[in-house]
Specification:
The complex is a heterodimer of chains A (112) and B (114). Chain A is mostly beta strands and 112 residues long. Helices cover 0% and strands 46% of the residues of chain A. Chain A contains no helices and 9 strands. The termini of chain B are far apart. The relative contact order of chain B is 0.33. Classes of the chains: A mainly beta (112), B mainly beta (114). The interface between A and B is medium-sized, with 21 and 27 residues.
């Protein structure tokens, strides 16, 4: 699976949009972009995923560049409960082990 | 409905001892995963079960680590002759089937080896 690069930390004001970038320049055509987050002392939680089109659900939006080499997770109105480590993961939908390969993630701190 | 549960939530043991960590996946989920997370790092894959069989155990660090899922639901991760470097949070996740988009994680078991 392709390697991802994320900033180690970011701050965001409560109520503002949080834009979390991810670089995946070696992504292959059959690899999806997944985002998970991990709130302190909890297991990771799925947020969203996409292949090449932008995606939106009740939690977030995912913007993938046309060349698919980078993406941005957008939390439109961040709250204090969104403080967490956010992981960007790229993988094929049906890789051999189907495991997730986590990097270091971005620690998002939402401040009042 | 109930999520993935893991017991115990915390386990403190002495170097050289044997430990068992239990995972109860979401009912009906056929795929089950174990990950290990050291402080300040992302989770690392250990082993993946599809039903009762270990489909991929390439992440197990050495032969002191073993996992079973005899009836295709509950799984136990077993660590023999524990070492201080085994201290970490052990996470379990399940999904309905292989290839399912979302993996559902439990809260983890924090293992401390003194």
């Amino acid at each position: 699976d392709a390697k991802t690069t994320q900033p180690p930390s970011m701050d965001c004001a409560e109520g503002r949009a949080a834009n979390l970038p991810c670089n995946h320049s070696t992504i292959s055509g059959n690899e999806y972009v997944y985002w998970y987050r991990q709130i302190h002392s909890q297991g990771p939680q799925y947020i969203i995923h996409g292949l090449k089109n932008n995606e939106t659900n009740e939690m977030a939006s995912l913007i993938i560049t046309e060349d698919r080499k980078s993406s941005t997770l957008i939390l439109p109105h961040a709250t204090l409960r969104d403080t967490a480590v956010y992981y960007c993961i790229v993988r094929v939908a049906l890789n051999t082990g189907n495991m997730l390969t986590f990097g270091g993630g971005t620690r998002l701190m939402v401040k009042p | 409905g109930a999520g993935v549960s893991q017991t115990p939530s915390n386990k403190v043991t002495e170097k050289g001892k044997y430990v068992e960590l239990r995972c109860d996946p979401i009912s009906g989920h056929t795929a089950l995963y174990w990950y290990r997370q050291s402080l300040g790092q992302g989770p690392e894959f250990l082993i993946y079960f599809q039903g009762t069989g270990a489909a991929d155990d390439s992440g197990l660090p050495n032969d002191r680590f073993f996992a079973v899922r005899p009836e295709g639901s509950v799984s136990t991760l077993k660590i023999q002759r524990t070492e201080r470097g085994d201290s970490a949070v052990y996470l379990c996740a399940s999904s309905r089937y292989r290839g399912e988009t979302e993996q559902f994680f439990g809260p983890g078991t924090r293992l401390t080896v003194l």
